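Tokens for HPt (Histidine-containing phosphotransfer) domain-containing protein. Go.
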Amino acid sequence: MTSTTSVIDKQVYNELQDIMAEGFTELVEVFRADTVSALSRLEHCVAQADAIQVGCICHKLKSSSKLIGAFKMAEWASLLETYKDDHNQARAQGHLQALLAEYAQVKAWLDADQPSMV
């Protein structure tokens, strides 16, 4: 994992921006939409104790978060992903709340970086 104190690792973000060029804005829009949908599904699945779905959703969320440089968000998704194995409801709730809070910070960072997408 890249060490960073920022919500988004700017080096990873900038490299992705360079690679994606004109497709970058669309990629960020897709990340936002997919993440909002995934978090909504996670809230439902954790509430329903559907550990298998939580694991699947978190695995995808972890990958997409790493792609844009949101490593702390990916870490929370990884921690929540363990729910599929340990079925610890209280821990899953805590990790979910931390993941939601981290996404709020990621969203705010993205809003500041790309205000036209707000």
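The mean pLDDT is 93.
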